[in-house]
Design a protein that fits this description.
Structural class: alpha+beta
Helix content: 25-40%
Strand content: 25-35%
Distance between the termini: 9 Å
Number of domains: 1
Strand order of the largest sheet: 1-2-4-3
Number of strands: 4
CATH topology: Translation Initiation Factor IF3
Radius of gyration: 11 Å
Largest sheet: 4 strands, mixed
Shape: globular
Length: 71
Amino acid sequence: MTSEASALVVDARGMKCPWPALRLARAMRGEAAVTLLADDPQAAREIAALAAEHGWVLEGETDGRWLVRRS
């Protein structure tokens, strides 16, 4: 189990979709877990779809913060 403390943090605040999802995808190429910060209202939908497509575990959203990890 990967904790949020050991996850790479990607700050995509201020970016409009699809940029937060693209930044997440790029970060997940080399990481087991990523904490994504995003404030675009569409980010939740985009991130959930990306995680489902790749089989990643999405820990849910809290104040614009998601923990995404490989399953």
